[in-house]
């Protein structure tokens, strides 16, 4: 059946997409909604973890949990909603009818697992830094410049323009003047994104200065 024929069939049946609003602040058990269709989808909710339970057609039928961006294709004449206590906000459910077919779950939560707010924050960058302070003095014995930081998105270190020696950067205390990831002459810098481990440094002469920061 073509898309046009499908659309005509749906219109002839007198069905349209319907919106059902659920007040999550009110705990209910098996609240009945006399709405028929064969597709149901959680369009919106306060967050990705607020969940409700739905039974289709009969109150004795199997409970199916639903969260935002999750749905189901199954023919039903009515459905029953259970909301646990302790939730807040409003959940928006879309109910529609298309050509009858087999039951099929709809799950679009992949983009919501890490939370869209977290992804947006990663793309836009922080408004507050993690760590920066007075320049550090690096000598011929390695020292730790930055400790591991699970909240770090990026970091940078820069050799002071007045340095007379070379500073070598490494990822642990085994850094030497022949084992390193960056060689910083006076004024040079090294930055790295998405590395949350430690930064160590060693210099070819005592008293070399290194600025640093992470965010």
Describe this structure in words.
It contains 2 helices and 18 strands. It is mainly beta and 215 residues long. It folds into 2 domains: 3-124, Jelly Rolls (Sandwich); 131-214, Jelly Rolls, CATH 2.60.120.770. A 5-stranded antiparallel sheet has the order 1-8-3-6-9, with no helix packed on it. Strands 10, 11, 13, 16 and 18 form a 5-stranded antiparallel sheet that branches. Strands 2-7-4-5 form a 4-stranded antiparallel sheet, with no helix packed on it. A hairpin with a 7-residue loop joins strand 4 (52-56) and strand 5. The mean pLDDT is 88.
In brief, what are we looking at here?
With 215 residues, the chain is mainly beta. It has helices at 3-12, 116-124; strands at residues 18-23, 28-33, 37-44, 52-56, 64-66, 70-76, 79-83, 90-96, 104-107, 131-132, 136-138, 143-146, 154-159, 167-170, 182-184, 189-193, 199-203, 208-214.
Helix/strand layout:
Blueprint: H1 3-12, E1 18-23, E2 28-33, E3 37-44, E4 52-56, E5 64-66, E6 70-76, E7 79-83, E8 90-96, E9 104-107, H2 116-124, E10 131-132, E11 136-138, E12 143-146, E13 154-159, E14 167-170, E15 182-184, E16 189-193, E17 199-203, E18 208-214
Antiparallel strand pairs: 1-8, 2-7, 3-6, 3-8, 4-5, 4-7, 6-9, 10-18, 11-18, 12-17, 13-16, 13-18, 14-15, 14-17
